[in-house]
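task queued by scheduler; priority normal; single chain, no ligands, no partner chains; default sampling; output format set to structure tokens
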Amino acid sequence: MVEDLFSPAVLQPQCSAKGCRAAAAWQLLWNNPKLHTPEYRKTWLACVDHRETLGSFLDARGFLREVKPFTAAGDAVIS
């Protein structure tokens, strides 16, 4: 059934890396200081394999603010 596709068991948080569908293990909190206020945070989710590359991408641009473990959707920062 179509509604089964949207059940929590089917829609699991996934890594934000292009083409990756692995389970999220980390949340990378960031903002672009040219566009956002200092307290505003956007969130990328990362799997174990992509935590370093996604973090390096954001850090090289001066966007990375914090990295936290991700264990459940309720843990994500909503901005």
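post-processing summary
- The mean pLDDT is 87.
- Residues 51-60 form the longest helix (10 residues).
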